[in-house]
Amino acid sequence: MKRTLKDIDVREKKVLVRVDYNVPIDVNFNITNDKRIVSTIPTLKYLLDENAAVIIMTHLGRPKGNVIPEMSLMPVSARLSELLGKPVKFFGGDCISVQSKKAANDLKPGEVLLLENLRFHPEEEGKSKSGKKDEVAMETFAKELASMGEVFIQDAFGTVHRSHASTVGIVKYVKDAAVGFLVEKELKFLGEALENPVRPFLAILGGAKVSDKINVIENLLNKVDVIIIGGAMAYTFMKSRGISTGTSLVENDKLDLSIELFKKAECKKVNFLLPIDHIIADKVDFLNKSIPDNAVVKTTLDEKIPDGFMGVDVGLRSIDKFSEVVKSAKTIVWNGPLGIFEVSEFSKGTIEVAKLVAERTCKGAISVVGGGDSVSAVKKAGVDERISHISTGGGASLEFLEGKELPGIASIPNK
Length: 415
Ligand code: AMP
Description:
Layout: E1 14-18, H1 35-38, H2 41-49, E2 53-57, H3 74-84, E3 89-90, H4 98-106, E4 112-114, H5 135-146, E5 151-154, E6 176-179, H6 181-195, E7 201-205, H7 210-221, E8 226-229, H8 233-240, H9 255-267, E9 271-273, E10 278-281, E11 297-299, E12 310-314, H10 316-328, E13 331-335, H11 348-362, E14 366-370, H12 372-380, E15 389-390, H13 394-401, H14 407-410
Parallel strand pairs: 1-2, 1-5, 2-4, 3-4, 5-6, 7-8, 7-13, 8-9, 13-14, 14-15
Antiparallel strand pairs: 10-11, 10-12
Helix pairs in contact: 8-9, 10-11, 11-12
Bound molecules: adenosine monophosphate (AMP).
């Protein structure tokens, strides 16, 4: 068990907190979704109640080691100040400048300082100014950051799968370190689902590619009782079983692997469910996520997809079949949409499953949803409040489901 915020002494200390404020910002510098900021407020409020001086570190976007004014954290500092109901000190420019260090040094108990975008420094991601891999530069940068505080709190779940100066390097140079409330909650829900699930344990996986989720499927086959595969991923599995898939997205180089995964599911006695009918279209405008005017859209009678058509969503009979297993599941992990849900006509499968998972959660099941698209889907279905846990880290939650060690978590000492 990792050391958590309440296990360490933060009272009146200078506390460095790594958060993930990589939020969407529009051309007028408005934050269009502040969930990532909101979800760190409990940790920050606790620290302020403990009279800590709080120094916040984050990245925003992919400036790749360059100072890009559009990726400044200035708009984030304004929103954070509103949410905390107190001023947030912020200096544009260099996060380890003399000015930033002086501000950190002068910071009083109960005050908040936000450092500028860490990724304006290539060293944050382990590179030198010339863009080459440079561990020494990363260590030096980590040390500089650490010099501004005494204690480190890891609350950036969206970034814990990265081994960076502010997620791993920094820990060596502070007196104490722990995970914050946001990361603690992620570890509790994802960890308990995988290590100690109440059974039956159901995984629902969708999305575009088998190749992105092979490791997740492999790992989950050791843990779950039932797995539902939807989205474009399903067609590769179907084709490997000799079922016609028309022009659906299929990864032909993953057919053998799909057969292996079926075999593994059989050996492990995992009920492996694929769609039994589909919504199909002869054309889709993938660029604009829309249906071209002259496109033909219909539903298949069974699992076969005719020539010239591609699967775009699961059909009603599949939803019924999936609903049976959702209704008896006691732990549900879901990652990835079951169709091209960005097109409203092809979003029914994903939205219905979101509703079913929410209903089942109301009846006592634990549900964990991760991945940007599934999170948007539960919101679109209006059921996000009823899911037990919505993960704040797409990539990090996938790596967790793969059973990988996350460097930003591994670096934190155990209790
Ligand atoms: P992922 O990032 O792997 O979770 O994939 C999400 C993407 O998969 C979304 O943009 C969906 O539109 C896409 N997707 C889901 N089902 C299909 C499908 N049947 N055909 C093509 N793309 C799909």
